[in-house]
C-alpha cells in the first residue's frame, strides 16, 4: 500500500510538479485555495487557506482518520514580494509572514501530532537562497524564510524523540509564477551569486525532497540544503 504524503500549495508551480512527480510512489494529499487540475487515483485535493487553523486541523485529521499514518509533509505553499523596506506596507508584511511561516507552523504542528503516535515521519520545509544572500528589496520575504529555517532547526530537536526528521531546502530561482514579477536583473544577480549559476528545475527540487524523505536519510535532521550552492 502506498504511503501517505501531504504537499501544500499544489494548484500550480513547484507544489503541482511535486504532486504529479510523487503519484506513482505515494498517495498524495494536496491543498490550495483554488481547485486542482490533477485527476489521479492516488491524489486527493483539499480547497483551503493554509493559514486558517481550523481548516488545517480538519484536513490533517481527515487524512489521518480515513487513510492512516502520514509518512511525509512537504511545506511548499508560499508567497514572494520584492519591495524596498521604506515602501512596504504592513498588509503586505502580514500576508508574506502568514503565507510563508504561519502555514508552515500550522501544518508542521498538526502533522507532527499524527506522526508522533507512529514514531516516524519526514517533514520538509521550503526556504530560499534569498535568505543567506541578503538581497536588497527582499527584506520581508527573506525574513519569513529565515523564520522557517530557525523553526526547522528547533523543531527538528523537539521532534527527534518521536522519530520525526525535519529539514529544509533553500530553493534557487525556479521558473514559476512566483518570480514573474521579479525584474530580470534581480534574478540574474541571484543566480550569479550561486556556485552553480543556473535556474533550478522541478527535478532538482524533487530529487532533493526524495533524498530527505527517504528512509536512508533517517540520521539527517535540522539541516538546510541550498540548491545551487550559496554561503
UniProtKB/TrEMBL annotation:
One matching Pfam family is adh_short
Q: Which InterPro entries match?
A: NAD(P)-bd_dom_sf (IPR036291), SDR_fam (IPR002347)
The family line of this record is: Belongs to the short-chain dehydrogenases/reductases (SDR) family.
Q: Which UniProt keywords apply?
A: Oxidoreductase
Q: What is this protein called?
A: SDR family oxidoreductase
Which Gene3D superfamilies is this protein grouped with? Answer: NAD(P)-binding Rossmann-like Domain
